[in-house]
Each structure stands twice: as structure tokens, then as C-alpha cells.
Write a structure and sequence with these properties.
By secondary structure, this protein is mostly helical. It has 23 helices and seven strands. Helix 14 crosses helix 15. It is globular.
Length: 570
């Protein structure tokens, strides 16, 4: 008879559980530490906060509104989770940190939860379908990627969308791999369940950012199946059921929003914000190679391993493995497609980074001493760059003007420099010893400490000039009971903490028609431009009541002079 296995005590079980979930737990603690350290930062966070505020005021769950007008830039899912978080946390905390129905920390929580939940599922997926010892380094690489960390604590739609879309693709790949491994233990219908989960999460990604989700999914799957020469799998992948799931989840809101918002809203939501933005962009227009430049910072320092990864995949024939093929295509296909689109931002590529992290974890996993030294040298060189820059600033270099600007930040700069130098030295030592398994944890710890200090101490010091609180406190008594307008395109931060909407005036005629009791808000840079019909004479008909430096600019409160200034005789 076999001897009974020893029973682990509760502290031992807890220790094992904590060790097994260390990456996501540490990531969650990091994000929670950063969460309350700053207010709403322009340009995007105040817009989302204002939309949630107006949805709460209206009691509306169908359409987001911005400055009293239906806001068509993105579908509804992110607004739903933000509003739900605001309503729930406002009630549970008794309004802790809430002003006018919104709180930055509460609106930030959906991004934090999406990032942590995805990282946990991502790590477990890698252990289930790939090699178990690949899961932790991949999770550490992803969690410490600068763009992934930033978006995980930012009030913006892209982290939620990317997590949903990437998880959908991983679920689909899981179903495919189970079909290719018929002898693997599991339920007979397990592949179908993974495929159905893929379509469910894809539908939610569609509700988060629109048709880009199914478009990229079709491109990735088509490229993968063409490479595999295996389109017959579509018959077993539940495509009809997937289409039904997508339509069932997506169409009710699109129909309801189109009926409530009208034809113009439907056109802007579906055509203008997707097809026209892709073919005739009006902002963030960059050349086709821009994403290569973005990656140097967004995926730093892991981007330095990409040439070695290319050689690894080619020389060791790793791409004979269907899983590695899919991982590669899940990054390359969005990269190529988005490079062809006119409007480009680094965050648009976010959904590809989990797959790149898995490939890089495979590169370092089990690396022999020679490869570990080469990879460690590259990683140490990458860490040495910010370490040297931070050290130089902390030691007073950069000139008197730079040092004057950084005077209040010397504390966190010195601590960040110390952490990066220590991390660089640790990676160098491990590289010299050929210990590849320690490279990723060492670099990740160093980067995590950098984010912790910068995201708490640094953000707290940087927040006052970027926050709109000072502006709100100064302007609120001056606009009480008066109509307030905004010159040109609204910056939502100027009204999110006030009890006013501020309809936009965009022409000289509209300014001339303002009542003397009304007030006008403007950014100084826009107010002083002779554009949109503005002239020095028209500008002279207004007087500045208040000027508040905010976010690197200056916000003005103006009123029309009771009597126009007479023009001087020639």
C-alpha cells in the first residue's frame, strides 16, 4: 500500500498559492499602489470622466454623452464598466474622492482589473498549452512592458480592448491545439468550448472598439490557416455558432444606439470612426514605419531581443510548431495591417504584445550559457540606458534650466536611478554566469521598482500642475448661475468637476452673439490665434476674468465687455 501523502498546513498552502500566482499578484499590488496617485490627465481621461458623469446625470445606459451631445468615438462596453464601477464604488465608499459623480481612482479600476485578470489567464493558458516553465517569464515580460503598464492604470479603452481580443485569440488557439493533440487528457468537447469562448470574448472586444476586432481576427486566422494549409478545421471550429454569439451580443446595442442617437450618430459610429478614420485620418498621421519607432519605447527593453528571436525561430525551426506560428502571426499581422492605416498610435498595437512576450519567453527558456550571456548582455545594455540617464539627472547634470525644472523631483529620480543601477548590475552578473533563467525576473524586478517609484512618488509630485482641480476651485464661484461657453473644441477637464456644460462656439459670429452675462472658457493658445474668424478687434471686446496655468497650458475665463472699446481715429 502506498504511504499517505503528507498534508500541507494552511500557511504552507498559502505560501505555495502565493508563489504560483506571484506575477499577477505583484502586478496587481503595483497597479493598486499607483491607482490613487494622480487625478485626471489630459487629453483622454477627462473626456471619459465627463461621459460617465453625463451618463449618470441622465440615468442613461445606451449612449455616452460628451458636453450634452451623443459621443460616437467608441462603442459602449468601456462606458458601461466605468459607469458601473462609479455607481458601485460611490455607494460603497460613501463618495470617497468623488466630485460631480466621478472619481479618477474608480474610473481607473476597470483597466486595472482587466490587466490583472488577463495576466492571470494568460499565465495559466501558457502553462496549459505550451511549456509550464514558459508561463512565468512571459507574464513578467508582459507586465513590465512600459506601454502595458501605462495603459493598465490609465482611463482609456485600449487595455480592455486588447486584453479581450488577445484572450479571444488565445482561446481559439487553445481549441485548435486540442484538435491537433487528440491523445491529450481532457473532455471530448473541450476544443469546442475553447472555440465558443473565443467567439464570446471577440464579441465583447467588438463592443469595446468596434469592427477592428473581427477584422483583425479574420486576418490573423486566415494567415494562420493558410500557413497550416488546414482550412478544413473551420468545420469543427464552430464558426456558425461563433457568428450567432457575436450577433446576439453585439447587435442589440448597435440597434438601440442607432435608434436613440439617430442616423447621424449611427453614421459617425460605424462609418466615420472606422472606415473614414482608417482611409482619411485627421489626427496621428504618421509614415508606415512609425510602429517600429514606437516599439523602441513601448516594448523596451525586451525589444532588444527581437533580432535574436528572429534568428532563433529560423535556425531552430521553431515555426514548424503550429503554436509558434500562431504566436508570430498574432503580432505580425496587426503590425503590418496597422502600419498601412494612416492614423497610428503605439497603443493600437497593444494586443500583439502578449504573443511577442510568449515568443521571447521561449527564446530565453532553457538557453545554454552562451546564448544566456548574449541575451543578458543585450538586456543589461538596455537597462543601462535609463540607469545612466536617471543617474545623470540625479547628480545635477543637464544644465541649470533642466535642474531647476527637476528640483522637486530629485528624490524619486535618485531612488529610480539607484534601482535601475542595481538591476543592471544584477543582470550583468547573471549574464556572466550564464544563468538565463534569472535574467527576466531580475530585469522585471528592476523595472517594477522603477514604475512603483515613478507611479507613486513621481506622479504625486507631477499631478498638481496637470490636474484641473485648481482651475475648478477658482472658476466655480465665477460661473455659478451663468451660461458658460467654450471657444473651439472642448477640453473636458475644464468642466468635469463643475456643475456646467459648456457648449462650443467655433465662429466669430457665435462670439458676437454672446450675451454679456455669459462666460467664455478658452485655452490661451487658441484664444490668441487669428483663426476661425478671430481678429484683434473681436478679441478686444472680451476681458479676462481668470487665468489658471494647467497641464502645460493656460485656461482663461472671459466675459464680453459691457461696452465695446472704441476704435482709435486714424
Amino acid at each position: 500500500m502506498d504511504a499517505p501523502s503528507p498534508q500541507l498546513s494552511s500557511p504552507s498552502r498559502l505560501a505555495l498559492w502565493l508563489r504560483a500566482h506571484a506575477p499577477e499578484l505583484l502586478f496587481a499590488l503595483l497597479l493598486l499602489a499607483v491607482l490613487p496617485m494622480r487625478d485626471l490627465w489630459a487629453p483622454d481621461e477627462p473626456d471619459f470622466a465627463q461621459c460617465v458623469k453625463e451618463m449618470r446625470l441622465r440615468g442613461d445606459w445606451i449612449l455616452p454623452y460628451l458636453n450634452g451631445v451623443p459621443y460616437s468615438e467608441k462603442p459602449i462596453l468601456y462606458y458601461w464598466v466605468m459607469k458601473a464601477a462609479s455607481v458601485l464604488l460611490d455607494a460603497l465608499t460613501g463618495g470617497l474622492g468623488f466630485t460631480q459623480g466621478v472619481a479618477a481612482w474608480a474610473l481607473r479600476l476597470p483597466s486595472v482589473l482587466a490587466a490583472v485578470a488577463f495576466l492571470s489567464a494568460f499565465r495559466r493558458w501558457a502553462a496549459r498549452f505550451l511549456e509550464p516553465d514558459l508561463a512565468e517569464p512571459a507574464a513578467l515580460i508582459l507586465a513590465t512592458t512600459p506601454l502595458w503598464f501605462w495603459q493598465s492604470q490609465f482611463i482609456q479603452i485600449d487595455l480592455l480592448f486588447s486584453a479581450l481580443l488577445a484572450w479571444s485569440w488565445l482561446c481559439w488557439l487553445g481549441g485548435y491545439l486540442l484538435l491537433q493533440r487528440p491523445g491529450e487528457p481532457g473532455q471530448p468537447d473541450e476544443p469546442r468550448r475553447w472555440f465558443l469562448k473565443a467567439y464570446f470574448w471577440l464579441a465583447l472586444a467588438f463592443l469595446a472598439k468596434g469592427p477592428l476586432a473581427p477584422l483583425l481576427s479574420v486576418l490573423v486566422l486566415a494567415a494562420f490557416l493558410a500557413w497550416q494549409r488546414d482550412f478544413t478545421v473551420l468545420r469543427r471550429a464552430g464558426i456558425v455558432a461563433g457568428l450567432a454569439i457575436t450577433l446576439l451580443l453585439v447587435s442589440p446595442w448597435y440597434i438601440a444606439a442607432g435608434l436613440k442617437g439617430g442616423a447621424h450618430y449611427a453614421y459617425e459610429l460605424i462609418i466615420f470612426q472606422n472606415f473614414e478614420r482608417a482611409t482619411r485620418a485627421w489626427d496621428h498621421i504618421h509614415p508606415w514605419w512609425k510602429y517600429g519607432e514606437y516599439m523602441l519605447g513601448d516594448f523596451f527593453p525586451w525589444v532588444l531581443w527581437l533580432p535574436a528571436l528572429a534568428l532563433h525561430l529560423r535556425r531552430e525551426r521553431r515555426l514548424a510548431d503550429p503554436a509558434k506560428r500562431f504566436l508570430l502571426l498574432a503580432f505580425v499581422v496587426p503590425f503590418v495591417f496597422l502600419s498601412l492605416v494612416q492614423s497610428k498610435q503605439g497603443k493600437y498595437l497593444l494586443m500583439g504584445y502578449p504573443f511577442l512576450a510568449l515568443l521571447l519567453a521561449d527564446l530565453i527558456r532553457g538557453a545554454e550559457a552562451a546564448r544566456a550571456r548574449r541575451l543578458g548582455g543585450l538586456l543589461a545594455a538596455g537597462l543601462a540606458l535609463p540607469a545612466a540617464a536617471l543617474s545623470a539627472l540625479a547628480l545635477g547634470m543637464g544644465g541649470a534650466k533642466v535642474q531647476a525644472q527637476l528640483a522637486s523631483f530629485l528624490g524619486p529620480l535618485r531612488l529610480m536611478a539607484l534601482g535601475m543601477v542595481a538591476g543592471t548590475v544584477f543582470v550583468v552578473v547573471q549574464a556572466v554566469r550564464g544563468r538565463g533563467a534569472r535574467l527576466v525576473p531580475g530585469a522585471a524586478l528592476s523595472l517594477g521598482l522603477l514604475y512603483l517609484v515613478g507611479g507613486t512618488w513621481g506622479f504625486r509630485l507631477l499631478d498638481p500642475p496637470k490636474s484641473y482641480r485648481r482651475w475648478t476651485a477658482a472658476v466655480q464661484p465665477l460661473i455659478a448661475g451663468r451660461p458658460v461657453f467654450y471657444w473651439q473644441t472642448i477640453r473636458s477637464g475644464v468642466m468635469v468637476y463643475t456643475d456646467h456644460l459648456m457648449p462650443e462656439l467655433r465662429s466669430a459670429r457665435a462670439l458676437e452673439g454672446m450675451d454679456a452675462e455669459a462666460r467664455l472658457v478658452a485655452q490661451r493658445g487658441e484664444w490668441e490665434q487669428d483663426a476661425w474668424g478671430m481678429t484683434p478687434a473681436l478679441r478686444a471686446r472680451f476681458e479676462v476674468l481668470l487665468s489658471v496655468p494647467t497641464g502645460g497650458g493656460e485656461i482663461l475665463l472671459l466675459r464680453k465687455r459691457p461696452n465695446p472699446i472704441p476704435e482709435e481715429a486714424p
